Amino acid sequence: MVGSIEVAISKPYSNGNISNHNGLEEKLDEFRRFLGKSNDDLLKIVGVGGGAWGSVFAALLQDNYGAFRDKVQIRIWRRPRRAVDKATAEHLFEVINSREDVLRRLIRRCAYLKYVEARLGDRTLYADEILKDGFCLNMIDTPLCPMKVVTNLQEAVWDADIVINGLPSTETREVFEEIRKYWKERITTPIIISLAKGIEAELDPSPRIITPTQMINRATGVPIENILYLGGPNIASEIYNKEYANARICGADKWRFALAKFLRQPHFIVWDNSDLVTHEVMGGLKNVYAIGAGMVAALTNESATSKSVYFAHCTSEMIFITHLLAEEPEKLAGPLLADTYVTLLKGRNAWYGHMIASGKLSLDMGSSISGKGTIQGVSAIEAFYELLSQASLNILHPEANKPVAPVELCPILKTLYKILLTREQGAEAILEALRDENLNDPRDRIEIAQTHAFYKPSLLGQP
To answer: Which of 273, 244, 266, 286 is nearest to 384 (CA)?
Structure first.
């Protein structure tokens, strides 16, 4: 990769308003000019990964800009030939027949009969096949717009201008290492927007955290300034159903102003932020603590008081951890706090914790659940625990006045690790951790983080 698209940053990209169809075309034209696209050169956008959020994100772009076929191409890649089980096919048939607009669309496209045959058990449907008709396997109850689906990864990405990473963090590295092979001859550098929430821990030669944008940077060689992260308080199905939501796109000044405006919709407000590290780390941490939130909800019969106590302690641990990773992290407020709140309130990780604590799921079933996808909080718990347990990262305990591993100041993280990874304890241990009489006021942990020099630049590979 020998070059990059060079553009001037202009502050008119400061999150404009969308009012009508003509406004959308003008906004598309403005973004194309920003990227230096000629009139006969398509803007090519591809989503990589067909999970719930990745599919919804691509569908939002398709709904907004898909009509302008001579100016933009929006496609999504997912692996081929993943079979849809009969129970899911039966449920999908019910969803189709409950929505007259969807039913009419399928009949008009001559696509309805295959769903009848699958309902009767006479045909096997595949995830890539139904995604073309607007059905995401992890979100069957929320039909999307028809999608242009590609199952050949090379075909999907080789000349894409914008690549949207909708993969789980646990799959990001592997897929982007393959993508690198297809980009060897590229002259221009693509822009990559990562939606992934999770981290990896690397312990040798020294402990450090690897975020999804860093995984992509390592795997492809694309400069970090061309890799951005988008996150926010959102539930995929609700956003597609036009519930009001907001998000932040985080990364280099060079791209984020323009992307924030391009992605913004009346019901989906996108702001920009420069603090890539804190937002990505928080994106991984919220999934960690969402599992515990689901457990607390199940074990206390949805006690508002117990859930609020848990919220106070888990957010103080999140603040403490971010102070290890950034010298002046973005405060847990506004969209960052809202993102944490909605994930603890509703989402697949909270659902998973609830199902484990209520005995409706077994840990032996793993962290990839049919109809839900990958529960990313499980791998994030393991990564954060292993990372923060390293003796080389020891910090001085302000009260005990002795060096301890950072994880010793994160009792909820420790407990979740023992419940889900080593299985030393049952789900009830999460309540025992909250009710420990020796547990300090959460404010104490926040003050410790804010007043002591805990920042460890080496955790992000910095000198």
So the answer is: 286
**Residue 84 identity (one-letter amino acid):** V
- Which residues are known catalytic residues? 286
What is the rounded CA–CA span in Å between residue 14 and residue 3?
27
Alpha-carbon span 300 to 213, nearest angstrom: 37
> Nearest to residue 18, comparing CAs of 268, 335, 238?
268
**Residue carrying structure tokens 């607009």:** 101
| Type of residue at 229 | Y
Secondary structure in 3-state letters for 67-110: CCCCCEEEEEECCCCCECCHHHHHHHHHHHHHCHHHHHHHHHCC
CB neighbour burial string for 19-51, b if at least 16 within 10 angstroms, e if fewer = eeeeebeebbebbbebbebeeeeebbbbbbbbb
Dihedral sign (CA 207, 208, 210, 214): negative
* Tokens, residue 455: 């920042």
Q: Give the pTM.
A: 0.89
Burial class (CB in 10 A: 0-12, 13-18, 19+), 436: exposed
- 365-412: pLDDT as tens digits: 999 888 888 899 999 999 999 999 998 888 877 777 888 899 998 999
Residue type at 279? H
Among candidate residues 363, 366, 368, the one with its CA nearest the CA of residue 418: 363
Nearest to 213 by CA among 200, 203, 224: 224
- Burial class of 369 by CB neighbour count within 10 A (0 to 12, 13 to 18, 19+): middle
> What is the phi/psi pair of residue 7, to 5°?
-140, 160
Which H helix or E strand runs over 150? strand 149-150
Amino acid identity at 319: I
Q: How far is CA 225 from the centre of its chain?
A: 19
Helix (H, G, I), strand (E, B) or coil at 248: strand
Average pLDDT over all residues of the chain: 90
- Tell me which amino acid residue 144 is: L
Q: Which 8-state DSSP code applies to residue 332?
A: S
Crossing angle between the packed helical segments 304-325 and 334-345, to the nearest 10 degrees: 130
Q: How confident is the model at residue 361 (pLDDT cuts 50, 70, 90)?
A: very high
